[in-house]
């Protein structure tokens, strides 16, 4: 291999021995920047030919079904459901043999349930609550959205909220069928006595944190003639005390029934 008088390798001549074409190399005068960049490892991506952006194949993202806004329909039937949800729940449970909280779409008979919906409205409702795109209607989620308010509701500036939205949003646990059943069972009693219940919650909350420990929370419910089974209490705690802090926000609890 040829070297110059100073013993330096003529790398251009050296590389030409392994290439059939002329290799154009950078100037022998290196700047600090170019020297630093030359130390970066060469990756396979650098060696691949670049394809113009316009000719690259587009990746199709996985598309879920359209999210339908059925709020006007749900508002239309909410009052009827408030008075007949027990009957609806009972009939749906009878058809839910596998106890999964869903029934075949064809079994959701709006006329029989006296919801007074058009065929198009029924199609929109059943499409929205067919979460798995398997032809099943998630009746638990449907009733929950019409009766309970587990998600913060949009309000106008002129609309007075019964319980103000929290500064720190609730990070809830799973909404299981058992949780839904437990909350739905006590819903009429909560609506009947929520004002004295909230006053009692506050009297137990001496530090004004908005939180109660589990025994105090259960005691307040007991004083309002609301008795939870161990299983029901566990299901409620799984939702409202996801982090297992042994504390529950009584405002978050009441807000689900009152927004």
Please give the share of residues in helix: 40-55%
Largest β sheet strand count, sense and barrel closure: 2 strands, antiparallel
Helix-strand topology string: HHHHEHEHHEHHEH
CATH architecture of one domain: Orthogonal Bundle
For this structure, what is the CATH homologous superfamily of one domain?
Answer: EF-hand
Q: Report Rg.
A: 33 Å
Q: Count all strands and give the number.
A: 4
Into which percentage range does the β-strand content fall? under 5%
**According to CATH, what is the topology of one domain?**
Recoverin, domain 1
Number of helices: 10
Overall CATH class of one domain: Mainly Alpha
Strand order of the largest sheet: 1-2
Ends distance: 85 Å
List low-pLDDT spans: 21-66, 153-161
- Global structural class: mainly alpha
What is the averaged pLDDT score? 73
Name the shape in a single word.
flat
Q: Concise description?
A:
The chain is mainly alpha-helical and 259 residues long. Among the domains are: 71-147, EF-hand (Recoverin, domain 1); 177-258, Recoverin, domain 1 (Orthogonal Bundle), CATH 1.10.238.10.
What secondary-structure arrangement, pairings included, does this model have?
Elements: H1 11-16, H2 32-37, H3 44-47, H4 71-95, E1 103-104, H5 119-128, E2 136-137, H6 139-147, H7 177-204, E3 211-213, H8 214-223, H9 230-240, E4 247-249, H10 250-258
Antiparallel strand pairs: 1-2, 3-4
Organism: Apteryx owenii (Little spotted kiwi)
Biased composition (Polar residues): 51-60
Protein name: EF-hand domain-containing protein
Explain this structure:
The chain is mainly alpha-helical. Among the domains are: 77 residues, Recoverin, domain 1 (Orthogonal Bundle), CATH 1.10.238; 82 residues, EF-hand (Recoverin, domain 1). Helix content is 46%, strand content 4%. It has ten helices and four strands. Strands 1-2 form a two-stranded antiparallel sheet. The protein has a two-stranded antiparallel sheet with strand order 3-4. α4 packs across α6, α7 packs across α9 and α7 packs across α10. It is flat and about 100 Å long. About 21% of the residues have low confidence.
């Amino acid at each position: 291999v040829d070297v110059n008088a100073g013993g330096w390798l003529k790398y251009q001549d050296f590389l030409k021995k392994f290439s059939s074409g002329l290799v154009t190399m950078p100037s022998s005068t290196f700047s600090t920047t170019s020297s630093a960049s030359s130390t970066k490892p060469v990756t396979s991506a650098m060696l691949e030919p670049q394809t113009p952006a316009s000719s690259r194949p587009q990746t199709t993202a996985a598309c879920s079904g359209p999210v339908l806004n059925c709020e006007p329909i749900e508002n239309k039937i909410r009052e009827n459901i408030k008075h007949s949800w027990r009957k609806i729940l009972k009939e749906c449970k009878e058809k839910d043999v596998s106890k999964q909280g869903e029934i075949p779409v064809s079994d959701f008979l709006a006329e029989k349930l006296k919801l007074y919906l058009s065929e198009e409205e029924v199609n929109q409702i059943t499409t929205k609550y067919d979460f798995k795109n398997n032809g099943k209607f998630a009746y638990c989620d449907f009733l929950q959205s019409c009766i309970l308010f587990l998600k913060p509701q949009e309000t106008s500036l002129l609309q007075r909220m019964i319980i103000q939205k929290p500064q720190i949003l609730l990070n809830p646990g799973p909404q299981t069928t058992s949780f839904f059943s437990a909350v739905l069972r006590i819903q009429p009693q909560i609506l009947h006595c929520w004002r004295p219940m909230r006053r009692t919650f506050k009297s137990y909350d001496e530090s004004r944190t908005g939180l109660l420990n589990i025994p105090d929370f259960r005691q307040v419910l007991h004083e309002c003639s609301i008795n939870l089974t161990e299983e029901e209490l566990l299901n409620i705690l799984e939702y409202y005390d996801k982090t297992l802090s042994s504390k529950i926000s009584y405002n978050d609890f009441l807000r689900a029934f009152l927004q």
